[in-house]
Amino acid sequence: MGLKLTAREKEILEILRKEPLISQDELARRLGIARSSAAVHVSNLMKKGVILGRGYVFNERVSSVVLGQSGVEIAVETGMRENWETVTRITTGIGGFAYKVATNLARFGLGVKILTALGIDEEGDRLIERLMKEEVDTSSLYRSSQHGTGKRVRVISQDGLVEYSDDVGLDVFEGLLDIWSHLLTGCEWLLVEHNFLEMVLRKLAQRESSQWPYICTLQLVGKEGSLADVFSDCHLLVLGVSGGEVEGWIEKGLGLVDKGLGSFVVTDGTSKVFVVNRKGSTEVTLAPNQGFEVTRGLEAFLAGIVYGLAQGYQYRQAVRIGSRVASLTEGGNV
């Protein structure tokens, strides 16, 4: 980003920092220039590496670490109606919390290190190749000769989501935390798969809380259930509600905020997003074209919110960045 910016480019940059989702038509109107001229200026900013496109993402690198499972993911969608017939769609790709979150963060231009465990097999080789292509730091991931790369089957139907997994065990990750401990506190943002939170917090408890990073996680829920107290030690919890009412989870989120949770974002992915923190509950309405399927896009949604917060945006803007990215993703099955 060493190229000099023109006065007009600096003017545009200031507008984009305040309103990263502004349309080029509105940008042109503000500047009193033609839309084609605005498009040229934006294109030049992208060429100079100042912004990365898609929501005018700024190239300001922030230290982040993502910890969780990665592996092969098979998605089975049943009960869908196409051309008056009920069909089943099966897709296979790379998935897992760590892979999906890390690659989405990297696409924003953030510096991302992934902490995950893979087997010494073809699936692991392919996954590492994809991570490196996305410029995710893979130097600290673990490859085991005792375990194969994880596999997960996700069955999505009108009744909700059911998962079957053959992942690297939590005991393997717990042993790895001794090796990774310095990385947990050496970052600004730590995004952790919710199953790993307890062991991570036990490790962090050995350090002063002032040395802790911003801990972020997500969970997919249905109509009923409860939220574990362990979430109260997080900076951000993103909750995706599949097949249930969003409003029913707000009170549960407020309970965690009272216990120490920084902020709680809950959504059904279609239209409603609520941000819950000590200031209360705020509804953010999604644009019609920015809805997403929570069973597939929740990791991208989390990554977008974290990017927004890391860049200093308020939650309303951060949520809209997250929803936009989630609406454009297939959840990591690439």
UniProtKB/TrEMBL annotation:
Positions of the Carbohydrate kinase PfkB domain: 82-160
Gene3D superfamilies: 3.40.1190.20, Winged helix-like DNA-binding domain superfamily/Winged helix DNA-binding domain (1.10.10.10)
Gene Ontology terms for molecular function: sequence-specific DNA binding
Pfam families, per the entry: HTH_24, PfkB
SUPFAM superfamilies for this protein: Ribokinase-like, Winged helix' DNA-binding domain
Protein name: Transcriptional regulator, MarR family
Phylogenetic classification of the source organism: Bacteria, Bacillati, Bacillota, Clostridia, Eubacteriales
